[in-house]
Amino acid sequence: MSSPLLVDGSNKPLHYTARTCTSASCKAAKHILELSRSLMDACNPQCYELLKSLGEQHVASTFRAKFESTSISSWQEYLAFQRYWGELHPNWDNRIIHATAEVNDNHANGTVYLLTEILQWTSEVKRTAVIVHKWKKSVGKWVCYESSAMRGHDPMLGADDQKASTAPSSSRDP
Questions:
Q1: Which site among 51, 97, 123, 174 is 20 to 30 Å from 133 CA-CA?
Q2: Prediction pTM value
């Protein structure tokens, strides 16, 4: 089993083990980190066409996603979900707070962990979430084959400056 190399969003390599970082591992980790950042930036409602275009270039035909209780079985279904969510919440804004990538020693697989902040999906709500993108190298280029989102805590609970969500609960909430 290979030992992963971690690279954070500040482009400083962090060694998961005491082994030295190879230049190819660092480049691969930085590359999938930037690809994940691009995909996440394009998940905002006003960027649907960009998300679609990025998917054509960097998403595997076997793509799957999971948002808590919602499973998505294809990139086309993911795009439809993003469009639906954007229509429901046109002011929704997804921002990356921190990102970390790990790549295995043979540079064929990698995982990106994104801590995000979701703003204004209902009223003035601010929520955190962790997004995980799994990548593989296929025919010489990196493609995302899996995405999962885990909702974090809602900072507005108990805070005076945040409003509680008034939206009905739905299994389609990311």
A1: 123
A2: 0.74
In a domain, 107, yes or no: yes
Chain centroid offset of residue 38 CA: 9
174 half-sphere exposure, CB direction, 13 A CA radius: 32
Angstrom distances, CA of residue 164 to CA of 25, 86, 110, 127, 167: 43, 20, 37, 11, 9
Q: What is the pLDDT at residue 22? A: 61
Q: Residue 142 is encoded by which pair of tokens?
A: 């990196």
Alpha helices in the chain (DSSP H): 23-41, 48-58, 75-88
Query: What domain count does the chain have?
Result: 1
What does residue 108 show for φ and ψ, rounded to 5 degrees?
A: -105, -20
Domain limits for position 91: 5-14+21-151
